[in-house]
Specification:
The complex is a heterodimer of chains A (about 350) and B (about 290).
Chain A lengths: L3 E12 L2 E12 L3 E5 L6 H9 L6 E6 L2 E2 L10 E4 L11 H11 L4 H14 L15 H13 L5 E5 L7 H18 L2 E6 L2 H7 L2 E6 L2 E6 L1 H6 L4 H6 L4 E11 L2 E6 L3 E6 L9 E6 L5 E3 L4 E10 L3 E9 L2 E8 L14 E5 L6 E3 L2
Parallel strand pairs in A: 3-8, 3-9, 6-7, 7-8
Antiparallel strand pairs in A: 1-2, 1-4, 4-5, 9-10, 11-12, 11-14, 12-13, 14-20, 15-19, 16-17, 16-19, 17-18
Chain B lengths: L2 H37 L3 E2 L5 E2 L5 H4 L4 H33 L3 H12 L6 H12 L4 H8 L13 H25 L3 H9 L4 H12 L1 H16 L3 H7 L6 H9 L5 H32 L1
Antiparallel strand pairs in B: 1-2
Classes of the chains: A alpha+beta (about 350), B mainly alpha (about 290).
Chain lengths: ~350, ~290
């Protein structure tokens, strides 16, 4: 059982009238890559800043390795931050930037040089020592910011959308690099992002936040396959929502009548009763297009996007679903035509009933 | 249109745009300066004016202890004034720069309003303020802080007070400008990297506001060193500064060549001081 690196209990942060973070509880394990994911203004950055000590919680407590942090100023906390805009000191060379934390914490001079060198080598920029931050590209500055934080060997590394300013290709490369780096150094990473794909790619666990609350905490698999709220299902990946009424409950197997005519079979993790209004969540890739199928629909649109084809199928007057199929079998292409009838099937285990 | 033709046109256009400025600089600045330079090598004509021969006598006259003393006094007063303006202005500028944007513009306005009053008028008001029976002494005596009134007027202290009052805004504005652009995340980054408040100040805030310190110091030091009205009104005869000596030479003493020579020495000192100051600041910033 891994130890707890950071624990937040009933943490609330108010800015005047505004509640930025609303009574959240989190337990982040040692050595974990943990992401705070949510839209802008959901409180994820404020949460990170409270862990760093740059904001003080209005209520609740924060523990880092079981030590309460309430009275600890940021410069005494065993954490380091990679800031969104990197915040490299423009008046110092790269070397001095990276050495800053070591100098401040009183590491002996003869150890600073080698450690800075090692950190620059780790981010694969060993030749930049004498340059100034403004002489580096965005991606390079990002790595220096990482080196400047990691050189201090913090107990926890906090990253505030560190890849936000990079272009897509560089961002994808850096995601994998960061993940590999985290595995290499073994330090707990707390990573703030609004990019669900980024969070899924890198994280061991994700906390999805909205409006100052933590909605769900889980592995990428759990978050994607078993969202517990409509918001989480909607925010992570693409989803079909089918609203209807429970008409049959058979153990975990639920039948929902959608739009008074479509019978949708689904499963529920919790208790539902006949007559209850629910939402069924089905991911586009969980559908199969078959001649017979469980329900019939009319193909409204066929969109070819290279790896996949997307179909928009009308199940009833007011119900449309997006269906996604991988283009594995080229002979299948062209069989499903716009305007034609088609059967749609799915495994009920992949159709989730949400009562919220 | 080829690139060369366009470049040619742009250059002509630039010349036309620059012409008035250049004309102004040459006719009203460079030429008079040249005249003064020539004067400084000429001889005084009795009773008034200038004459040949060319000589270095006016510069040699500085060797006199009297003038060296006055130069030294001017230098000390100007340095003190600059230091006080910096020490007072820095926290004010910092505090102002941390206010919400709306409050900042109001504060800037409030800071500048007193300085729209004529400098001479303000210096006169300071004379009244520092009087033995003036408001400052009344306040100090009334509050029981002092038993005897302070003799401030016609002392070097009065000159420093007058100069600080006169030029403080010139210090605050460039400081404020360098602070308002200060990226707050840099201060947070420093704290995050184990720097306490003092270290954040010395290692991040101070070097990043060094350009403001340099600009403000020059803007206060230069006019303080050449001050004329302030020592004249507040310093009395015993606290004469270089500016007063120069004015004397062009006025009462009617020794234009000597006055010109002093002006040039003063300019040289200011130039050297400015260059040195910038050098030191830059080296400091680079060493950090």
């Amino acid at each position: 059982m891994a130890e707890t690196a950071v624990e937040l209990s009933n943490v609330t942060k108010r800015f005047g009238e505004i509640v930025a973070v609303d009574d959240i509880n989190l337990r982040i394990k040692d050595g974990e890559f943990f992401s705070l994911l949510g839209p802008s203004g959901c409180g994820k950055t404020t949460t990170l800043r409270m862990i760093a000590g740059l904001e003080t919680a209005s209520e609740g407590g924060i523990l880092i390795h079981d030590k309460p942090m309430r009275q600890t100023p940021p410069f005494k906390r065993p954490v380091n931050t990679v800031f969104q805009n990197y915040a490299l000191f423009p008046h110092m060379t790269i070397e001095k930037n990276v050495a800053f934390g070591l100098e401040m914490s009183g590491v002996p001079k003869e150890q600073i040089g080698p450690r800075v060198e090692e950190a620059l080598a780790m981010v694969r920029l060993p030749d930049m020592a004498k340059r100034r931050p403004r002489q580096l590209s965005g991606g390079q500055q990002q790595r220096i910011a990482l080196a400047r934080a990691l050189v201090n060997r913090p107990e926890v590394l906090l990253l505030d959308e560190p890849l936000g300013a990079l272009d897509l290709k560089l961002r994808k490369a850096m995601q994998l690099e960061l993940k590999a780096l985290q595995a290499q150094v073994g330090i707990t990473f707390i990573y703030v992002t609004h990019d669900q794909e980024e969070a899924l790619t890198m994280s061991d666990r994700i906390a999805v936040m909205d409006a100052g609350r933590v909605l769900q905490v889980g592995t990428p698999y759990e978050i994607y396959e078993h969202p517990t709220t409509r918001f989480v299902a909607d925010f992570i990946g693409e989803t079909n929502f089918l609203e209807g009424e429970v008409i049959d409950v058979l153990g975990a197997l639920i039948t929902v009548l959608v739009d008074s005519e479509v019978h949708v079979q689904a499963t529920s993790d919790g208790h539902v009763q006949p007559g209850q209004a629910v939402t069924v969540v089905i991911r586009p890739e969980k559908f199969n297009l078959e001649a017979e199928g469980m329900v019939k629909g009319k193909v409204k649109e066929v969109i070819y996007i290279g790896t996949d084809t997307r179909y928009i199928v009308q199940l009833s007057a007011r119900t449309e679903v997006v269906i996604r199929e991988q283009n594995i079998d080229p002979s299948r292409m062209g069989q499903v035509r716009e305007g034609g009838e088609i059967g749609v099937a799915w495994n009920p285990a992949h159709a989730l009933v949400l009562t919220e | 249109m080829s690139r060369e033709v366009r470049n040619q046109r742009e250059r002509t256009f630039l010349r036309v745009l620059l012409a008035p400025t250049l004309f102004w600089l040459i006719v009203f600045f460079m030429l008079p300066l040249l005249v003064i330079l020539v004067y400084s090598f000429l001889t005084k004509k009795i009773p008034v004016g200038i004459s040949l021969p060319l000589n270095l006598g006016n510069y040699v006259r500085f060797a006199d202890l009297l003038y060296i003393q006055i130069f030294w006094r001017s230098f000390v007063i100007a340095t003190l004034t600059t230091a006080i303006c910096l020490l007072m202005g820095y926290p004010i500028a910092y505090w102002m720069s941390r206010q919400p944007p709306r409050a900042r513009s109001t504060l800037l306005l409030l800071l500048m309003i007193p300085f729209w009053t004529n400098f001479v008028v303000r210096t006169y008001s300071m004379k009244f303020f520092l009087f033995r029976q003036g408001p400052l002494n009344n306040l100090l005596l009334g509050s029981g802080l002092l038993k005897e009134p302070l003799t401030l007027l016609f002392t070097p202290t009065a000159v420093v007070i007058g100069l600080v009052y006169g030029w403080a805004v010139e210090m605050v504005l460039p400081l404020y400008a360098s602070m308002v652009d200060l990226d707050l995340s840099l201060l947070e980054a420093a704290q995050d990297l184990y720097a306490n408040r003092f270290k954040v100040f010395t290692r991040v805030i101070l070097p990043l506001t060094a350009p403001g310190i340099a600009a403000g110091s020059i803007l206060v030091f230069v006019p303080s060193l050449g001050a004329y009205i302030t020592p004249d009104l507040l310093g009395g005869s015993k606290t004469a500064m270089i500016g007063n000596i120069i004015a004397d030479q062009f006025g009462g003493a009617q020794d234009w060549p000597f006055g010109s020579a002093i002006s040039f020495v003063l300019m040289a000192i200011m130039l050297v001081a400015t260059v040195l100051y910038f050098r030191i600041l830059r080296r400091e910033a680079e060493m950090k």
